[in-house]
Every structure is written in structure tokens, then in C-alpha cells.
Design a protein that fits this description.
This is Thiamine phosphate synthase. The chain has 210 residues and is α/β, with parallel strands linked by helices. The chain is built from 8 helices and 8 strands. Strands 1-2-3-4-5-6-7-8 form an 8-stranded parallel beta barrel, surrounded by 5 helices. The longest helix has 18 residues, at 43-60.
Length: 210
């Protein structure tokens, strides 16, 4: 099984911090997993960002995952991809990127989770837990019971895939979410808009690892 970090940080397009600045801050705070999520740039701009970000991640020993953009595989030092399309053919994507690349997906239902596990996803972001302005969507918000039920059903199906809660999570939510049996947490806005990024990151990290 591939290494999957329990606390994952996701970059976003925000006015006051570039993706590169977000990654620098996260790595300085101790981040070991960065998901570069940029859906607003062309390939040349993406690669320009990714090449700088990859160097930062390499300096800090941090895993770099890119949201979508699987066609960039092999063009930069990328360890994996996170596919947000819940209808994506993961078997085809796995065949395209090979077995060594880490492949994550997004899910909103237990059926999504089981399909991703059966189609060779290495981990899944399960959410949203709460409404979020960072990534607006029309998906149903999941309750704590939804997370608990999902973990129970995955175990009943002998599925070991790591499940991370994602979507509008605050520090106050971490303890109760981890008690559902999930593997970890992914966060973005709670860090990007915190008064002190490094302090917020480390508080999240300690809460997830507790």
C-alpha cells in the first residue's frame, strides 16, 4: 500500500496568496502532503507553477499531488493525481499513469467509495462535510453518521482504502470526525484564511494525529 498522509493540505485560487506562496507556507509549517488544485490556468502556466512547487516539496520531503490534469503526468516531478470527477474511469486512468503514481478520487456516497476502491484508487476524499466557499458544489453535505456508516460498510466489504473527510472542515470538527474511523482530514480554507497559517496548520496536524 502506498504512503498516504493523514492530514492533507489543498491549495486554491485565492486573492491574497499565490499557489506557490501557499505551498511555501504549508511546507514551512510542516506539511508532508500538498494537493495543488488549480483549474484556472493553461498547461504552460500550470507547469510553471508545478515545477517551482515540486522543488519546494522536494526540499521539504513533501508529497506533491495534482488535482485532475492527468495529461501532465511525466512532464514534472508529480507523485500523484487527485481526480474530482466522480464518474471518471479510474481503471483507464490507472492504466495511463501506471502503478507507481498515487491516485486519489472524490466521493459523496458509499457506492462511490466502493467503486473507487475496486478501480484501484489509493485513497478517497469523502465529502463535503460542510458547505464551503473554497469549492462550491451542489453535493449533499455528509453527517458524522454518514462517515461512520461508510467506514462500517467498507470494512464489511473488506476494503482497506484510506478515507479522508474533506469540505468545510474546521479545527473544532477534527476530533469528532476522526472518531468515526476515517483515516484522515483534508483542509484548505481553514488554513488559508486563518490569522496565522503556520499555527493553524500545526493545530490541525496535532488534532488529526492525536
Amino acid at each position: 500500500m502506498k504512503y498516504i498522509e493523514k492530514f492533507q493540505y489543498i491549495t486554491h485560487d485565492i486573492p491574497h496568496l499565490s499557489h506557490i506562496e501557499q505551498v511555501q507556507k504549508a511546507c514551512e509549517a510542516g506539511a508532508k502532503w500538498i494537493q495543488y488544485r488549480c483549474l484556472s490556468k493553461n498547461d504552460d502556466e500550470l507547469l510553471s507553477d508545478i515545477n517551482v512547487i515540486a522543488e519546494i516539496c522536494d526540499d521539504w520531503g513533501t508529497t506533491l499531488i495534482v488535482t485532475n490534469h492527468v495529461h501532465l503526468n511525466g512532464k514534472a516531478d508529480i507523485q500523484g493525481f487527485h481526480i474530482e470527477n466522480m464518474d471518471a474511469d479510474f481503471l483507464a486512468i490507472r492504466k495511463m499513469v501506471g502503478d507507481d503514481i498515487t491516485l486519489g478520487g472524490s466521493a459523496n456516497t458509499i457506492e462511490n467509495l466502493i467503486r473507487l476502491a475496486n478501480e484501484s484508487a489509493d485513497y478517497t476524499g469523502f465529502g463535503p462535510f460542510a458547505t464551503t466557499q473554497t469549492k462550491p458544489n451542489n453535493l449533499p453535505v455528509l453527517s458524522l453518521n454518514d462517515y461512520t456508516d461508510a467506514i462500517i460498510k467498507l470494512k464489511a466489504n473488506d476494503i482497506q482504502m484510506p478515507i479522508l473527510a474533506v469540505g468545510g472542515i474546521t479545527l473544532n470538527n477534527v476530533e469528532v470526525l476522526m472518531q468515526t474511523g476515517i483515516y484522515g482530514i483534508a483542509a484548505s480554507g481553514a488554513l488559508n484564511f486563518a490569522d496565522n497559517f503556520e499555527e493553524a496548520y500545526q493545530e490541525f496536524y496535532m488534532a488529526v494525529k492525536a
